[in-house]
TrEMBL record:
CDD domains: PanC
Organism: Luteolibacter algae
Any one GO molecular function term: pantoate-beta-alanine ligase activity
Job description of the protein: Catalyzes the condensation of pantoate with beta-alanine in an ATP-dependent reaction via a pantoyl-adenylate intermediate.
Gene of this entry: panC
One Pfam family in the UniProt entry: Pantoate_ligase
Gene3D superfamilies, alphabetized: HUPs, Pantoate-beta-alanine ligase, C-terminal domain
Protein name, per record: Pantothenate synthetase
Catalysed reactions listed for this entry: (R)-pantoate + beta-alanine + ATP = (R)-pantothenate + AMP + diphosphate + H(+)
Amino acid sequence: MWIANTKPQLRNYLSSGSEKIILVPTMGALHPGHASLIALAREHAGKDGIVIVSIFVNPIQFDRSSDLEKYPRPLAEDLEICEKYGADGVFAPEANEVYFPDRSITVTEKSLSENLCGATRPGHFDGVCTVVLKLFNLTKCTAAVFGEKDFQQLAIIRRMVRDLDLDVEIIPHPTIREPDGLAMSSRNTRLTPEHRADAVRIFKALSAARQFTSAFDIFAAAKSHIEASDHAKIDYLSLVDANTLTPAPDLSAPTILACAVFYGDVRLIDHISIPAHPQNS
Ligand SMILES: Nc1ncnc2c1ncn2[C@@H]1O[C@H](COP(=O)(O)OP(=O)(O)OP(=O)(O)O)[C@@H](O)[C@H]1O
Ligand SMILES: CC(C)(CO)[C@@H](O)C(=O)[O-]
Ligand code: BAL
Protein backbone atom coordinates (compact mmCIF):
# COMPACT_ATOMS: atom_id res chain seq x y z
CA MET A 1 0.00 0.00 0.00
CA TRP A 2 1.43 3.39 -0.96
CA ILE A 3 1.27 6.49 1.21
CA ALA A 4 1.30 9.96 -0.34
CA ASN A 5 1.81 13.02 1.84
CA THR A 6 2.04 15.56 -0.97
CA LYS A 7 0.11 16.36 -4.14
CA PRO A 8 3.07 15.47 -6.45
CA GLN A 9 3.48 12.10 -4.68
CA LEU A 10 -0.22 11.41 -5.13
CA ARG A 11 -0.04 12.36 -8.83
CA ASN A 12 2.89 9.99 -9.22
CA TYR A 13 1.05 7.05 -7.65
CA LEU A 14 -1.99 7.74 -9.84
CA SER A 15 -0.02 7.91 -13.07
CA SER A 16 -0.42 4.17 -13.80
CA GLY A 17 -4.07 4.92 -14.64
CA SER A 18 -7.13 2.85 -13.77
CA GLU A 19 -10.70 3.09 -14.94
CA LYS A 20 -12.10 2.91 -11.43
CA ILE A 21 -10.75 5.01 -8.59
CA ILE A 22 -12.81 4.83 -5.40
CA LEU A 23 -12.11 7.39 -2.68
CA VAL A 24 -12.96 7.01 1.02
CA PRO A 25 -12.55 10.48 2.56
CA THR A 26 -11.87 10.43 6.33
CA MET A 27 -10.35 12.47 9.11
CA GLY A 28 -8.53 9.41 10.49
CA ALA A 29 -8.84 7.82 13.96
CA LEU A 30 -10.35 4.94 12.04
CA HIS A 31 -12.86 2.58 13.67
CA PRO A 32 -14.91 -0.39 12.36
CA GLY A 33 -17.35 2.06 10.69
CA HIS A 34 -14.52 3.37 8.51
CA ALA A 35 -13.20 -0.17 7.95
CA SER A 36 -16.57 -1.10 6.56
CA LEU A 37 -16.51 1.89 4.17
CA ILE A 38 -13.06 0.84 2.91
CA ALA A 39 -14.26 -2.76 2.42
CA LEU A 40 -17.27 -1.48 0.42
CA ALA A 41 -14.95 0.65 -1.72
CA ARG A 42 -12.81 -2.46 -2.36
CA GLU A 43 -15.91 -4.39 -3.44
CA HIS A 44 -16.90 -1.62 -5.88
CA ALA A 45 -13.35 -1.27 -7.23
CA GLY A 46 -12.89 -4.98 -7.95
CA LYS A 47 -9.39 -6.29 -8.38
CA ASP A 48 -8.41 -3.85 -11.13
CA GLY A 49 -9.73 -0.65 -9.57
CA ILE A 50 -7.90 1.55 -7.06
CA VAL A 51 -9.11 2.29 -3.51
CA ILE A 52 -7.71 5.44 -1.94
CA VAL A 53 -8.36 6.47 1.67
CA SER A 54 -7.72 10.12 2.49
CA ILE A 55 -6.78 10.93 6.07
CA PHE A 56 -6.94 14.65 6.68
CA VAL A 57 -8.20 16.54 9.73
CA ASN A 58 -9.55 19.45 7.72
CA PRO A 59 -9.02 22.62 9.78
CA ILE A 60 -11.49 24.75 7.82
CA GLN A 61 -14.51 22.63 8.80
CA PHE A 62 -13.98 23.02 12.56
CA ASP A 63 -15.98 25.67 14.38
CA ARG A 64 -14.26 25.16 17.77
CA SER A 65 -10.45 25.32 18.03
CA SER A 66 -10.37 22.92 21.01
CA ASP A 67 -12.26 20.32 18.94
CA LEU A 68 -9.61 20.61 16.21
CA GLU A 69 -6.70 20.46 18.67
CA LYS A 70 -8.10 17.43 20.51
CA TYR A 71 -9.12 15.50 17.39
CA PRO A 72 -7.40 12.06 17.73
CA ARG A 73 -4.59 11.36 15.21
CA PRO A 74 -3.36 7.74 15.56
CA LEU A 75 -1.78 7.56 12.07
CA ALA A 76 0.17 4.29 12.47
CA GLU A 77 -2.94 2.35 13.55
CA ASP A 78 -4.96 4.02 10.79
CA LEU A 79 -2.52 2.84 8.12
CA GLU A 80 -2.80 -0.75 9.39
CA ILE A 81 -6.61 -0.60 9.13
CA CYS A 82 -6.44 0.85 5.59
CA GLU A 83 -4.14 -1.96 4.44
CA LYS A 84 -6.14 -4.68 6.22
CA TYR A 85 -9.44 -3.67 4.60
CA GLY A 86 -8.08 -3.40 1.08
CA ALA A 87 -6.88 0.15 0.38
CA ASP A 88 -4.29 0.48 -2.39
CA GLY A 89 -3.12 3.85 -1.21
CA VAL A 90 -3.52 6.53 1.46
CA PHE A 91 -3.38 10.26 0.92
CA ALA A 92 -2.41 11.87 4.25
CA PRO A 93 -1.34 15.47 3.67
CA GLU A 94 -0.68 18.31 6.14
CA ALA A 95 -2.94 21.36 6.02
CA ASN A 96 -0.28 23.55 4.38
CA GLU A 97 -0.03 20.98 1.56
CA VAL A 98 -3.78 21.07 0.92
CA TYR A 99 -4.44 24.82 1.17
CA PHE A 100 -2.63 27.77 -0.35
CA PRO A 101 -1.95 30.46 2.28
CA ASP A 102 -3.90 33.01 0.24
CA ARG A 103 -6.77 30.66 -0.62
CA SER A 104 -9.76 32.76 -1.69
CA ILE A 105 -12.30 30.28 -3.10
CA THR A 106 -14.79 28.37 -0.94
CA VAL A 107 -17.65 26.09 -2.00
CA THR A 108 -20.91 27.05 -0.28
CA GLU A 109 -24.16 25.09 -0.31
CA LYS A 110 -27.09 27.33 0.51
CA SER A 111 -30.12 25.17 1.18
CA LEU A 112 -29.54 21.78 2.78
CA SER A 113 -26.95 23.28 5.12
CA GLU A 114 -29.34 25.84 6.65
CA ASN A 115 -30.38 23.64 9.59
CA LEU A 116 -29.01 20.99 11.96
CA CYS A 117 -25.17 20.91 11.96
CA GLY A 118 -25.09 23.73 9.41
CA ALA A 119 -26.88 26.03 11.87
CA THR A 120 -24.95 25.05 14.99
CA ARG A 121 -21.49 24.75 13.37
CA PRO A 122 -21.25 27.92 11.23
CA GLY A 123 -19.05 27.44 8.17
CA HIS A 124 -18.74 23.70 8.75
CA PHE A 125 -20.25 22.58 5.45
CA ASP A 126 -18.33 25.24 3.47
CA GLY A 127 -15.21 23.56 4.83
CA VAL A 128 -16.51 20.08 4.03
CA CYS A 129 -17.60 20.92 0.46
CA THR A 130 -14.36 22.76 -0.29
CA VAL A 131 -12.11 19.95 0.89
CA VAL A 132 -14.23 17.18 -0.67
CA LEU A 133 -14.19 18.92 -4.06
CA LYS A 134 -10.40 19.30 -3.77
CA LEU A 135 -10.04 15.61 -2.81
CA PHE A 136 -12.21 14.58 -5.78
CA ASN A 137 -10.00 16.66 -8.09
CA LEU A 138 -6.69 15.55 -6.58
CA THR A 139 -7.50 11.82 -6.61
CA LYS A 140 -9.47 11.96 -9.91
CA CYS A 141 -11.86 9.52 -8.26
CA THR A 142 -14.75 8.02 -10.22
CA ALA A 143 -16.70 7.21 -7.03
CA ALA A 144 -16.54 8.02 -3.31
CA VAL A 145 -17.99 6.31 -0.24
CA PHE A 146 -19.69 8.32 2.53
CA GLY A 147 -21.34 7.16 5.76
CA GLU A 148 -25.03 7.72 6.43
CA LYS A 149 -24.14 8.59 10.03
CA ASP A 150 -23.32 12.07 8.67
CA PHE A 151 -26.57 12.16 6.69
CA GLN A 152 -26.65 15.94 6.25
CA GLN A 153 -23.09 15.82 4.90
CA LEU A 154 -24.10 13.01 2.51
CA ALA A 155 -27.10 15.01 1.24
CA ILE A 156 -24.95 18.13 0.71
CA ILE A 157 -22.21 16.22 -1.12
CA ARG A 158 -24.84 14.67 -3.42
CA ARG A 159 -26.20 18.18 -4.09
CA MET A 160 -22.69 19.47 -4.84
CA VAL A 161 -22.13 16.60 -7.30
CA ARG A 162 -25.45 17.38 -8.99
CA ASP A 163 -25.16 21.18 -9.07
CA LEU A 164 -21.51 21.27 -10.16
CA ASP A 165 -21.88 18.37 -12.67
CA LEU A 166 -19.13 16.36 -11.01
CA ASP A 167 -18.51 12.99 -12.60
CA VAL A 168 -18.29 11.12 -9.28
CA GLU A 169 -20.67 8.39 -8.12
CA ILE A 170 -21.60 8.76 -4.46
CA ILE A 171 -21.86 5.42 -2.64
CA PRO A 172 -23.65 5.55 0.73
CA HIS A 173 -22.89 3.20 3.63
CA PRO A 174 -25.27 2.52 6.57
CA THR A 175 -24.30 3.59 10.09
CA ILE A 176 -22.22 1.07 12.02
CA ARG A 177 -23.02 0.94 15.74
CA GLU A 178 -21.43 -0.36 18.92
CA PRO A 179 -23.22 -3.43 20.36
CA ASP A 180 -25.19 -1.12 22.72
CA GLY A 181 -26.40 1.04 19.81
CA LEU A 182 -24.08 4.06 20.06
CA ALA A 183 -23.07 5.17 16.55
CA MET A 184 -19.35 4.62 16.08
CA SER A 185 -17.46 7.89 15.87
CA SER A 186 -13.83 8.91 16.19
CA ARG A 187 -14.85 11.31 18.94
CA ASN A 188 -16.23 8.44 21.10
CA THR A 189 -12.67 7.77 22.29
CA ARG A 190 -12.68 11.20 23.95
CA LEU A 191 -15.70 10.39 26.16
CA THR A 192 -15.08 9.73 29.87
CA PRO A 193 -16.35 6.29 31.00
CA GLU A 194 -19.32 8.02 32.67
CA HIS A 195 -20.19 10.01 29.54
CA ARG A 196 -19.69 6.92 27.37
CA ALA A 197 -22.28 5.08 29.50
CA ASP A 198 -24.73 7.99 29.21
CA ALA A 199 -24.22 8.40 25.45
CA VAL A 200 -26.07 5.10 24.92
CA ARG A 201 -29.21 7.14 25.57
CA ILE A 202 -28.94 8.92 22.23
CA PHE A 203 -29.85 5.96 20.04
CA LYS A 204 -32.21 4.54 22.66
CA ALA A 205 -34.03 7.90 22.73
CA LEU A 206 -34.32 8.08 18.94
CA SER A 207 -35.52 4.46 18.74
CA ALA A 208 -38.08 4.93 21.54
CA ALA A 209 -39.38 8.17 20.00
CA ARG A 210 -39.88 6.48 16.63
CA GLN A 211 -42.75 4.44 18.07
CA PHE A 212 -44.95 7.54 18.47
CA THR A 213 -47.10 8.80 15.63
CA SER A 214 -47.23 12.57 16.19
CA ALA A 215 -44.39 15.06 15.81
CA PHE A 216 -45.08 16.46 19.29
CA ASP A 217 -44.87 13.06 21.02
CA ILE A 218 -41.78 12.02 19.07
CA PHE A 219 -39.92 15.18 19.98
CA ALA A 220 -40.99 15.09 23.64
CA ALA A 221 -40.05 11.41 24.06
CA ALA A 222 -36.59 11.87 22.55
CA LYS A 223 -35.86 15.01 24.55
CA SER A 224 -36.84 13.56 27.91
CA HIS A 225 -34.88 10.37 27.26
CA ILE A 226 -31.65 12.21 26.39
CA GLU A 227 -32.04 14.76 29.16
CA ALA A 228 -32.56 12.02 31.76
CA SER A 229 -28.75 12.22 31.98
CA ASP A 230 -27.47 15.34 33.76
CA HIS A 231 -24.35 15.16 31.62
CA ALA A 232 -26.16 15.59 28.29
CA LYS A 233 -26.49 19.03 26.74
CA ILE A 234 -28.62 18.99 23.60
CA ASP A 235 -27.05 21.10 20.82
CA TYR A 236 -30.06 20.45 18.59
CA LEU A 237 -32.89 17.97 18.40
CA SER A 238 -34.98 18.39 15.24
CA LEU A 239 -37.55 16.71 13.09
CA VAL A 240 -36.79 17.60 9.49
CA ASP A 241 -38.22 16.71 6.10
CA ALA A 242 -36.12 13.83 4.76
CA ASN A 243 -35.61 15.52 1.37
CA THR A 244 -35.28 19.23 2.11
CA LEU A 245 -33.88 18.98 5.67
CA THR A 246 -36.18 21.86 6.67
CA PRO A 247 -38.14 21.67 9.94
CA ALA A 248 -41.13 19.32 9.62
CA PRO A 249 -44.11 20.55 11.64
CA ASP A 250 -45.97 17.25 11.15
CA LEU A 251 -45.46 13.76 9.77
CA SER A 252 -47.22 14.26 6.43
CA ALA A 253 -44.02 13.16 4.62
CA PRO A 254 -41.04 11.00 5.60
CA THR A 255 -38.99 12.84 8.21
CA ILE A 256 -35.71 12.44 10.04
CA LEU A 257 -35.29 12.90 13.77
CA ALA A 258 -31.74 14.17 14.18
CA CYS A 259 -29.72 15.34 17.14
CA ALA A 260 -26.34 16.57 18.28
CA VAL A 261 -25.57 16.16 21.96
CA PHE A 262 -22.63 17.37 24.03
CA TYR A 263 -21.14 15.23 26.79
CA GLY A 264 -18.56 17.58 28.27
CA ASP A 265 -16.87 19.08 25.22
CA VAL A 266 -17.46 16.01 23.04
CA ARG A 267 -20.26 16.51 20.53
CA LEU A 268 -21.96 13.43 19.07
CA ILE A 269 -24.56 13.22 16.29
CA ASP A 270 -27.14 10.60 15.38
CA HIS A 271 -30.47 10.36 13.55
CA ILE A 272 -33.31 7.99 12.73
CA SER A 273 -35.86 7.91 9.89
CA ILE A 274 -39.51 8.41 10.82
CA PRO A 275 -42.13 7.09 8.39
CA ALA A 276 -44.93 9.41 7.22
CA HIS A 277 -48.15 9.33 9.31
CA PRO A 278 -50.42 11.45 7.06
CA GLN A 279 -53.46 10.94 9.30
CA ASN A 280 -51.75 12.96 12.05
CA SER A 281 -50.85 15.98 9.93
N1 LIG B 1 -20.39 4.73 12.52
C1 LIG B 1 -20.23 4.98 11.24
N2 LIG B 1 -20.88 4.23 10.32
C2 LIG B 1 -20.75 4.50 8.99
N3 LIG B 1 -19.98 5.47 8.50
C3 LIG B 1 -19.31 6.23 9.37
C4 LIG B 1 -19.39 6.03 10.77
N4 LIG B 1 -18.61 6.95 11.38
C5 LIG B 1 -18.08 7.69 10.41
N5 LIG B 1 -18.49 7.27 9.20
C6 LIG B 1 -18.18 7.86 7.90
O1 LIG B 1 -16.78 7.87 7.72
C7 LIG B 1 -16.41 8.99 6.93
C8 LIG B 1 -15.34 9.74 7.64
O2 LIG B 1 -15.86 10.27 8.85
P1 LIG B 1 -14.96 10.84 10.01
O3 LIG B 1 -13.54 10.57 9.72
O4 LIG B 1 -15.39 12.20 10.36
O5 LIG B 1 -15.32 9.87 11.21
P2 LIG B 1 -16.33 10.02 12.37
O6 LIG B 1 -16.30 8.78 13.15
O7 LIG B 1 -17.61 10.54 11.79
O8 LIG B 1 -15.64 11.07 13.25
P3 LIG B 1 -16.28 12.28 13.99
O9 LIG B 1 -17.75 12.33 13.76
O10 LIG B 1 -15.93 12.05 15.40
O11 LIG B 1 -15.54 13.37 13.29
C9 LIG B 1 -17.68 9.82 6.74
O12 LIG B 1 -18.23 9.50 5.48
C10 LIG B 1 -18.57 9.31 7.85
O13 LIG B 1 -19.95 9.44 7.58
C1 LIG C 1 -15.85 14.11 4.44
C2 LIG C 1 -14.75 14.58 5.39
C3 LIG C 1 -13.56 13.63 5.32
C4 LIG C 1 -14.26 15.94 4.88
O1 LIG C 1 -13.24 16.43 5.69
C5 LIG C 1 -15.27 14.73 6.82
O2 LIG C 1 -16.25 15.68 6.92
C6 LIG C 1 -15.68 13.43 7.43
O3 LIG C 1 -14.76 12.72 7.87
O4 LIG C 1 -16.88 13.11 7.47
N1 BAL D 1 -17.77 13.32 10.32
C1 BAL D 1 -17.99 14.74 10.39
C2 BAL D 1 -16.76 15.51 10.43
C3 BAL D 1 -16.77 16.56 11.48
O1 BAL D 1 -17.42 16.39 12.51
O2 BAL D 1 -16.13 17.60 11.32
